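Lecture notes, continued. The same structure-token format from the folding unit now serves as the input rather than the output. Read the line below as a description of shape only.
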């Protein structure tokens, strides 16, 4: 058990020797996301957006194919509000100017 929670996948030991729960959770999420991404190769077709039904299918498929316990994974929608994204092109020294452009968009 890690932090009172049963591990999802094999123990991952960090360089400092601790068992890393986050790495296990990331492994589960990756398996589910990969299953969803590769669904086009199966009879199960996904439309534009992932639904609860799609997620449930992917969890069941990942558990069966990878032998993982994905019961800790949840389907949820998070409302983040306004979001901005920008691609910085140029040297790292010029990044502050790019960040200022994003801050100005508020």
């Amino acid at each position: 058990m890690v932090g009172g929670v049963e591990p999802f996948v094999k123990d991952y030991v960090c360089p400092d020797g601790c068992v890393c729960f986050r790495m296990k959770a990331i492994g589960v999420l990756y398996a589910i996301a990969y299953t969803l991404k590769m669904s086009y190769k199966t009879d199960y077709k996904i439309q534009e957006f992932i639904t609860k039904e799609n997620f449930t299918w992917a969890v069941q498929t990942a558990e069966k194919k990878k032998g993982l316990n994905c019961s800790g994974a949840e389907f949820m929608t998070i409302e983040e509000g306004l979001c901005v994204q920008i691609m910085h092109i140029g040297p790292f020294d010029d990044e502050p100017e790019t960040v200022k452009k994003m801050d100005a968009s508020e």
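Point for the exam: The mean pLDDT is 81.
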